Amino acid sequence: MLDLRKWRGADPFLSAVQSMSCPIFVVERTPEGVFQFVHFSPELEKATGFDADAVCAGPIETVFPARMAELIADNYRAALESDTPIYLDEAHRLNDAETWWRTVLARAPDGAQGRARIVGVTSEITDVKLRESRLVSDLADLKMAHREVQMLAGLTVHDMRAPLANVISLTGIVLEGFRDLGDGKRDMILACRDVARSSIAAIDGMMQRVMSDHSAPFREDEIDLYRSCADIAGLVDPGQRLTITYPRQVVLTDAIVLHATLRNLMENAVRYARSQIDITIDEDPVALTITLSVMDDGPGVDAAIDPIAKAARAKGGAKCGYGLPTILKLLKSQGGSLSYIRRKDKPGAIFRAELPGRIHELASPAKSA
After folding, report:
1. How far apart are CA 151 and CA 147, in angstroms?
2. CA nearest neighbour of 68 among 100, 48, 101, 93
């Protein structure tokens, strides 16, 4: 194997990169079209736990698991084809823990023999992602509570309106044939009617404010579904025991809700699947919704159990599958839904999540290694 590191000392670019005290790396594409690290900084060694010499020892296919190597090779190819830096949020399992990294990739000056180069700078953002997820979950709780308050306030306002309408009706009946004897009673009755009318107008205005939707507009993040599925597959099936297929498509929807839903459904499928998991995406262009389906070839859910109803009944500390109560709450907060389908053609289960969004790009399905 050709040792690319021997050029470091004589290479001005690599010498400059080596002087930077930050998590930085340099990758070269060999004439055979494979990618190989030629620099992996000490700061990156410390952050990831990888040994720099081992990482730089050969092509990435020989250094990382096949699924992870395939994904990062796709990222590097995209960086070489881009005129501007690309920004990635990546999930990896390191030291038996799920970690998140924000990476910037950019084309660098070519190396020896015209080898294309990429320079990358990364930083761990696991804590940020966890806080982000908690905030989304809290926001979903607030939305659900807001809807309950809307319903209660609506019923209360309706109950207040009915007696006042009766007062107006009764004053009309009383005033029919009423003769004022000069003691001001007619004026008092008319005043009562006017007060009731103004109160109804105020209640109608209150009702309009209560029932109006003050929630934030729906987010349309651009998400590479293939990359998200590959990231999660590497986390939930690191040993590549299963064959997992997922589409090469880009969707526009809420990134946090989609990732949380996908992560939980894939994790649940891995728990029960025998050998195969298939992930598909469909859209309804009229309703502007997408439907994410996760199918496995496991035993399926017991016929006597409705997992969605069970999730809906679960309380905060209850266990029900892999976070189905949380996923159900997040989807409902976006006007989405979660459903379970028993497979009829063969053993297994299908979970389908529907949420606002649309498919941005289409391509053929891709199978993991």
Report:
1. 6
2. 93
Partner residues linked to 250 by β-bridges: 224, 361
Q: To which residue do tokens 């996923």 refer?
A: 327
SS3 state at 176:
coil
Q: What is the pLDDT of residues 32-90, one digit of tens each?
A: 889 999 999 999 888 888 888 998 988 998 888 888 888 888 889 989 988 889 888 88
190 Cβ contact partners less than 8 Å away, ≥ 6 residues apart: 171, 175
Does this model's pTM top 0.85? My answer is no
Strands, sheet with 337-342, edge to edge from the N-terminal-most edge strand: 337-342, 349-356, 289-296, 276-284, 243-247, 365-367
Of 260, 263, 250, which Cα lies nearest the Cα of 220?
A: 250
SS3 279: strand
State the CB neighbour count (10 A cutoff) for residue 169: 12
Residues 178, 180, 181: CA angle, nearest 5 degrees: 130
DSSP assignment of 101-147 equals: EEEEEEEE---GGG--EEEEEEEE-HHHHHHHHHHHHHHHHHHHHHH
Q: Which two tokens stand for residue 369?
A: 């290694």
Residue 115 and residue 33: Cα distance in Å, rounded? Answer: 10
Residues 68, 69, 70, 74, CA torsion sign: positive
Cβ-based neighbour number of residue 103 at 10 Å: 19
What CA–CA distance (Å, rounded) separates 14 from 68? 25
